[in-house]
Amino acid sequence: MPDLLVPTNPLPDPGQRATITVEEAGAFLGVSRTSAYAAAHRGEIPTIRIGKKLLVPVARLRAMVETEHVS
To answer: Where exactly are the structural domains of the chain?
Structure first.
């Protein structure tokens, strides 16, 4: 089994923060701000909108990452 990279920016505990910014999600996933927003708009990163703010629910992002399998 190949070594898996551990993100340098760990996700906060959902009990501490329910959401993070798209930029923070991108940093966690190791992609640029532009790529993170593009993925969010394509529905590849789970988001919720509150007013004009686009946020990423920590629990949903964590579940998404944990269910992905490396081939």
So the answer is: 19-67
